[in-house]
Amino acid sequence: MTDDPGSIDLVTSDGLTLEAELRIPGDPWARAVVCHPHPQYGGDMHAPVNAAMFTSLVAAGAAALRFNFRGAGRSEGAFDHGRGERLDVTAAVERLVSATPEVPLLVAGWSFGADVAAAVGHPAIDGWFLVAAPMVTVPADDIVAATSEKPKQLVVPGNDQFRSPESASELVADWPATTTEVVAGADHFLAGRTNEVSRLLELFARALA
């Protein structure tokens, strides 16, 4: 499955091989796993918001790993409604831990990827960066981030079609260590606003460092 120096394979705990890309600049100050939107609606690791987050992190000197969820791209398996996908995120986190220095590690996700990321509580995770999270993919009781004392940041488009800023703020009102940033004028797809997402991501990552 590997076809260029940055391309790697991940193996999940249930035996699936996933395609991924890992970039490690010299002496990284942070590291991040980037999770993509819904694969049944065209989402993959090259989706625009994901691509912007991934490339901006690497350009800023952080290590970054993006991958295709099971059933997306050349990854094995089939879509599992956010259940098996948590194993995919865990495999990505563990690969990043094994390949990089011990610097702060965050999980970033957009849309479906944000929902799945919020349900993964690997001990190596130091924070979650959740972009346009619908918060409907996984049961509320499974959202590990909701009770963790580790930092979380929600980035909510002002005109999001699936979760309004007001609804998002209400949903996370009881979450500890959580901040919310609204991207005014943007909808769920954040067209033309990926630079703002990347800026907020770098600020969040540096606050962990």
Brief sketch in words of this structure:
This protein is 27% helix and 22% strand.
Counting DSSP H or I runs of 4 or more residues, the number of helices is: 5
Number of domains: 1
Uncertain segments are none
Could you please say which CATH topology applies here? Answer: Rossmann fold
Largest beta-sheet characterization: 8 strands, mixed
Strand percent estimate: 15-25%
Instruction: Indicate the radius of gyration in whole angstroms.
Output: 15 Å
Q: How would you classify the helix and strand content by structural class?
A: alpha/beta
CATH class: Alpha Beta
Q: Could you spell the SSE succession in H and E letters? A: EEEHEHEHEEHEH
What's the architecture, going by CATH? Answer: 3-Layer(aba) Sandwich
Anisotropy-based shape: globular
Number of strands: 8
Strand line-up across the major sheet:
1-2-4-3-5-6-7-8
Quick one: CATH superfamily?
A: Alpha/Beta hydrolase fold, catalytic domain
Proportion of residues in helical segments: 25-40%
Summarize model confidence as the mean pLDDT.
96
Please report the distance between the alpha carbons of the first and last residues. Answer: 33 Å
